[in-house]
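Below is a filled-in request sheet from our internal design queue. Each sheet records the structural input a requester submitted and the sequence that came back. We keep these sheets so that new team members can see what a complete request looks like end to end.

REQUESTER: design group, bay 2
PRIORITY: normal
MODE: inverse folding
CHAIN LENGTH: 504
BACKBONE (tokenized):
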């Protein structure tokens, strides 16, 4: 009998599952990797959709109304856009909101000179709140108007815009005085302060204060417990809003305070419903991020009147996006040590280049490559593109796709009287779907087998997106000089020959 040699145990079997996965991924081809990532993205998308459907099925009517309180009849008539009053109101909505706003909207305008439908800002957006009563030599503004003695005096203070409807101003003023919780509770607190010793008391809007037994997920309107009168030596939290009677100047409101949005947009939050705050929790018990909160509030849902706000809705989107970016930048500034900024490439060169420049004295904050639009992000993406050029040569196709504001997918989802620029969220979603569909066609090989591709999406000054694509085709499918006319056409095909392309 012969003795069979013992089979050597493979070292591959000794590796952990994670190591085996890494080895397989290192050896897989580009097509296999793209297919695997595509399946992974599809599973994640389906998982999020299923979670959303389950949450909506389990959501009661009471919870839905807490998130989107029914619009008062007055505001429902004004937001529908059917009557002449409503059409005038929507066309001047930003002006009406600025008159009733309790805080000022501060930003540095960096728009290009001349007419431009878009707004470009530089730096941060901030909301400021002044004293409850104006100084003797100044007229009342913002929240101070609400505390004037009579309705007639309030209307005269808001009468600086002659092109606004006096009847609409009177009806909105009366309704907010009666139903907005911030106005009612602050007026009550102000009267109590006037009756006592003013120098020993202050009015505070709490950052984290809700009624006993209130559910943590509720977007509640403020209650009496959220506005308090304190003695001057009593401590307050960092984000609490402390109001003075006449002194104190302007005070900046924290972006994480629950009153940040309702004080700035009383026509969107007429009851004083809470905006985003850091104590907000989802159904799964996890904290809700700002991105999740505002993504939820701009989705198409029954009773979501924010989507009818036209130019004010655009301002609201800009404000919300800047809040999200501000918190991201604050996180990066706080976590510089954990990001190991001393190991970043080119950091030493940048410090040496700034040596001796008095304008760049201070702490150096490094934005990682994961921050979209940052210097390292752009440098990394540019390096990836140049790597494609070095490996595959120059690109075979350079294709530009521009958004058309009259696409049926956009027009069919607009409310009566709305234009495409009134709903930038729909424009962005439709264009994203068009880009994904175009990439699906390209991956199927309509111009040949793809070796590599990249694209970038930009926004024009008029607010519409466009995309630039670069495609590298496999050598056996590269286009020849005599075949250019087969791939490139500058004419509209006849309807009888290609109806689908003619309609596009």
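RETURNED SEQUENCE:
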């Amino acid at each position: 009998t012969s003795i069979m040699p013992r089979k050597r145990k493979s070292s591959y079997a000794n590796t952990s599952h994670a190591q085996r996965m890494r080895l397989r991924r290192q050896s897989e081809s580009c097509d296999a990797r793209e297919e695997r990532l595509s399946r992974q993205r599809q599973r994640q998308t389906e998982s999020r959709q299923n979670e959303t459907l389950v949450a909506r099925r389990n959501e009661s009517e009471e919870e839905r109304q807490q998130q989107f309180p029914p619009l008062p009849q007055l505001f429902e008539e004004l937001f529908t856009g059917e009557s002449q009053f409503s059409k005038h109101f929507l066309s001047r909505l930003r002006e009406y909101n600025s008159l009733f706003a309790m805080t000022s909207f501060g930003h540095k305008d960096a728009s290009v000179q001349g007419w431009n439908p878009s707004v470009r800002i530089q730096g941060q957006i901030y909301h400021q709140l002044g004293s409850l009563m104006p100084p003797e030599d100044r007229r009342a503004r913002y929240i101070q108007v609400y505390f004037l003695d009579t309705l007639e005096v309030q209307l005269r203070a808001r009468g600086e815009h002659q092109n606004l409807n006096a009847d609409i101003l009177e009806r909105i003023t009366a309704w907010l005085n009666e139903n907005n919780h911030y106005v009612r509770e602050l007026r009550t607190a102000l009267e109590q302060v006037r009756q006592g010793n003013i120098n020993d008391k202050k009015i505070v809007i709490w950052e984290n204060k809700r009624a006993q037994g209130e559910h943590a997920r509720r977007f509640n309107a403020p209650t009496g417990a959220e506005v308090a009168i304190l003695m001057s030596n009593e401590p307050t939290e960092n984000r609490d809003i402390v109001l003075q009677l006449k002194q104190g100047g302007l005070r900046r409101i924290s972006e994480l305070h629950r009153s940040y949005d309702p004080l700035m947009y009383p026509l969107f939050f007429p009851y004083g419903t809470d905006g985003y705050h850091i104590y907000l929790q989802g159904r799964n018990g996890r904290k809700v991020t700002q991105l999740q909160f505002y993504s939820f509030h701009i989705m198409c849902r029954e009773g979501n009147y924010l989507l009818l706000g036209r130019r004010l809705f655009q301002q609201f989107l800009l404000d919300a996006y800047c809040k999200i970016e501000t918190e991201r930048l604050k996180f990066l500034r706080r976590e510089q040590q954990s990001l190991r900024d001393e190991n970043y490439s080119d950091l030493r060169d940048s410090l040496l280049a700034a040596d001796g420049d008095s304008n760049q004295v201070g702490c150096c904050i490094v934005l990682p490559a994961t921050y979209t639009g940052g210097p390292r992000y752009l440098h990394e993406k540019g390096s990836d593109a140049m790597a494609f050029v070095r490996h595959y040569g120059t690109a075979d196709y350079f294709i530009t796709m521009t958004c058309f504001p009259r696409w049926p997918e956009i027009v069919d989802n607009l409310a009566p009287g709305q234009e495409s620029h009134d709903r930038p969220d729909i424009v962005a979603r439709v264009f994203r779907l068009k880009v994904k569909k175009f990439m699906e066609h390209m991956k199927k090989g309509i111009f040949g087998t793809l070796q590599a591709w990249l694209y970038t999406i930009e926004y024009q000054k008029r607010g519409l997106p466009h995309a630039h694509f670069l495609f590298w085709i496999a050598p056996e499918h590269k286009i020849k000089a005599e075949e250019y006319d087969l791939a490139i056409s500058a004419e509209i095909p006849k309807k009888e020959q290609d109806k689908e392309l003619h309609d596009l």
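SHEET NOTES:
- The chain has a mean pLDDT of 75.
- The chain has two domains: 67-111+121-332, 394-503.
FILED BY: M.R.
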